[in-house]
Amino acid sequence: MAAPKKGRGPSGGQGRPGRSLVLILIAMVALTGGMFLSGHTTPRLGIDLAGGTSITLKAKNQPGKPNAINATNMGTAVGIIERRVNGLGVSEAEVQTQGSDNIIVNIPKGTNSEQAREQVGTTAQLYFRPVLTVAASGPEQPTPSGSATPSGSATPSAGESAKPEDKGEEATGEEATPSPSSTTQGRAVTGALKKAPTPTPTGSGEPKPSGTPEASPSADPATAKLQEEFAKLDCTDPEQRTAAGKDALPTDSIVACGSNVPGSYEKYVLGPAEVSGGDVDDAEGAIDQQTGEWIVSMEFTSAGAKKFQTITSRLSQQQPPMNQFAIVLDGEVVSAPSVRTALSKNAQISGSFDQESAADLGNILSYGALPLTFEESSVTTVTAALGGEQLKAGLIAGAIGLALVVIYLVAYYRGLAFIALLSLLVSGILTYTIMALLGPAIGFALNLPAVCGAIVAIGITADSFIVYFERVRDEIREGRTLRPAIERAWPRARRTILVSDFVSFLAAAVLFLVTVGKVQGFAFTLGLTTLLDVVVVFLFTKPLMTLMGRTKFFSSGGSWSGLDPKRLGAQPPLRRSRRAGVSTDPKEA
Amino acid sequence: MSRLGNLGARLYRGEVGYDFIRNRKIWYGVSILITITAIIGVAVGGLRMGIEFKGGAVFTTDSRAQISTSEATDVATEASGHLAIVQELGNGGLRIQITEVDTAKANEIKETLSEELGIPAEEINADLVGPSWGEQIANKAWTGLGIFMVLVVIYLAIAFEWRMAVAALIALIHDITITVGVYALVGFEVTPGTVIGLLTILGYSLYDTVVVFDSLKEGQKDITKQTRYTYSEIANRSINSTLVRSINTTVVALLPVAGLLFIGGGVLGAGMLNDISLSLFVGLAAGAYSSIFIATPLVADLKEREPQMKALKKRILAKRAAAAARGESPEDDGPVYRQADEDDEDGETAGAVVGQRQQPRGHGRTPGKRR
Questions:
Q1: Optimal mutation site among A490, A510, A567, A571, interface B, most CBs of chain B within 10 A
Q2: Which residue of B has its CA nearest to A377?
Q3: Residue A444: inside a domain
Q4: Range of the domain at A59
Q5: What is the pLDDT along chain A (589 residues), one digit of tens a residue?
Q6: What is the dotted CATH code of the domain comprising B2-49+133-307?
């Protein structure tokens, strides 16, 4: 708490005003240099100024789960939503929690906001599905059989044979023919997959996507459709990737994408879901005591254990790849481990995990089907044009406000206004550079309320100078000469400034901590500028006053200095002088 | 300006001044009247809550909309099944506001609007708000308000004294009530921007009050060791001596807000800039008024109840009576300003604004001439 007496002794730059000025100059140079070095010369703009879509999600309380909304769950939800949004190929989408139960998703302009909304709004769905077919899909694979068609296309095709997408159907005809026969089983698929859970497709095999497994009766039209989808699916295309497996009922067979190594993708045909995320009691990354490798250990609920036992005992009898089950989160295969023996309550997934990927998978398994559902509290779509217009309006408003303040200060304080203007300038430079640097540092984005906060802060900052100037003038009215007046006025002005700035900062801090959304941006700027105000007044305005007090212009009290003792009606030594002051007061325009 | 500078000097020395304390009851009355009007306004008329609080959608287009506002109203009302409010913006664009629309349904409406207005859907700005969002904002704002008030009262009680804390709190509530009342009476729409503005008033109103209190705190130092001025008189001097600063602060604070209001209202037509600046403008004006006319007189009222201050006042009045009986002016010189109603039976503020230039370092000088 800023007790009123807080602060350094009366020195405050009294003796060495130069030192404080040099200090603040260094700070300004350092901040400006940092700004240019980091390459962020403008503050990051919020959605309402830059254009884009901002979605606010509020976690809903669900009956029976009173403590579901907590920091861990919210963090997991953010992670999952981030994955989904970035799956759209959005760059710089930003997902963050706000307050205790809100998640803000900011998607910059140029993204399909409707699709983004769909992605974000749905609850995460986690299922365990048996793998029916698997194939590599993506550009990273080694060139397969000589049939690969060289192509300038940047998007290699679906299917093994790395054909450009537009030739996908041909490829299907030639070699990746899906056989809709219900009896065919996908045994021909890559041998490398035996080493699942990290299927590293070698690309040597030819995908012969298989039909229905024994478990499900053949439903020809559906299966054929699935095969066709599978053949067409190109997992390297983010849109196709997210679209695959979306909106499928748990009881349907689906096609889905997955990735074990960043940059390479596999596509799967998956059977109906047999275990759901709710059946997993707990899961975490751990180190296998025997091998020393990272594994994911999971524990099922008693109901889940039964189901899991059923699926694993069946799968363990199968040949690869049908001995794999896929862990599918929101239609995306997160992992597809193969099953060696029947398992029940406790299971371990081993493979080439490192600490991070093991922990990730553990999180997904534990929270994949989030204990939280979200509702859209607000969706704001701002076109770039409107954003630019609002930014312009904010800047013009700021310029007008600043100009009015400057005119007023000059008219009232004359020469003193010079000091006030320099201080405002310093304050402005500090605010701007800090805002620019806070963008990359803490994700601060300048939005319209923040601009308002900065404009309002002009008044608060200018007021500190007014408090001090009025004190100095009071001292001069007492009959003091300028230099003692400046020093005597300072301790009292300092106290007033600290007390009032503290109150202002308190308001900003409370607002920032308690509120959400736009209010928070406003509070942040207000708090920042209030802090900077104190810095500027202490390290710049006061020392500058001391220095200026030594100049002839100010100490002689010329009528333009703003410190003219006569005009101020300085008192004594002689009573008469006051009256004289009044009468000799030159009229000026 | 020179006259103002001189006024500053004379205010500072107490040669001129308005007797805020003596006339406090008038101003209390004015404030109570305004406050009651505000409360009645809120109770009867209610606040016009924006989309953000009721849930619904706001679509904003740019100037290309080839359709009149009334046509747009029909289109939007038909598409949504709810009454749409369409405004034309300063830039020629349209602002279409539809209440109680589900965020999910808003997409269809947007498509329809896009067709009818001839503007691609992705170039229509949309603001969709679920019904619980505004409630959440409002709840958090109230929570913030509550926490802030408690903290500020604690802080002021420590930094100053509890009487000042109470007075500041009353002034704060007064400002907020008036601002809310203006919104109810004029029928401005309440949006999150309004809430932001309202919450900013908190800091500002107190900021102003605190500066006056700071001066008062200096003035009341060693008050019991002198017999020239009662507490009320000293309080009055404090207000007057900081009056120039208060005016300057208010002007300097209002100028940028006026800039915002002009641009927000004039150029953009409606929106956040306008909402924030409007509530700020009302609130700042109320805040400047209350810190002078309400907060400090309240402190004086509370202070005068203290036994010490009562005793002091008694001594001073006795002294003055004695002086009057001797046929002298209580002060040996110096004109008595603004004492037209000298016969005021109250008498407690007599001499409140007496000049005392002959003793620059006399007792009871206001802003801490002694250190």
A1: A510
A2: B130
A3: yes
A4: 52-114
A5: 444 444 444 444 445 778 888 888 888 898 888 888 888 788 888 777 877 888 888 887 766 556 667 777 777 778 777 766 665 555 567 777 777 778 888 877 665 666 666 666 555 567 788 888 777 765 444 433 333 333 333 333 333 333 333 333 333 333 333 333 333 333 332 223 333 343 333 333 344 444 434 444 444 566 777 777 777 777 777 667 666 665 566 677 778 777 766 667 778 888 888 887 777 777 777 888 777 788 888 888 888 888 888 888 888 887 777 778 787 766 777 777 777 777 777 777 777 777 777 776 776 666 555 556 777 777 777 777 777 877 888 888 888 888 888 888 888 887 888 888 899 899 988 988 988 888 777 777 888 888 888 887 888 788 888 888 888 888 887 778 888 888 888 888 888 888 888 888 888 888 888 776 677 778 888 889 989 999 999 888 888 888 888 877 777 766 666 666 666 666 554 444 444 434 344 443 3
A6: 1.20.1640.10
CATH code given to domain B56-129:
3.30.70.270
ipTM computed for the complex: 0.74
N- to C-terminal Cα separation, chain A: 46
The interface residues of chain B toward chain A in range 211-240, judged by CB-CB distance below 8 A, are: 211, 214-215, 218
Whether residue B196 and residue A449 make contact (CB cut-off 8 A), yes or no, is yes
Residue A553 lies in a domain: yes
**How many Å apart are CA B139 and CA A377, to the nearest integer?**
14
Q: Which two tokens stand for residue B17?
A: 């001044």
* Residue ranges of domains in chain B: 2-49+133-307, 56-129
A330 CA to chain B: closest CA distance, Å? 21
Nearest CB to A4 within list B130, B159, B263: B159
Chain B residues near residue A491 by CB distance under 8 angstroms: 371
Neighbours of B128 (CB within 10 A): 29
- Cβ separation A378–B129 shorter than 8 A: yes
Instruction: Residue window 77-106, chain B: list those with CB within 8 Å of chain A.
Output: 91, 103, 106
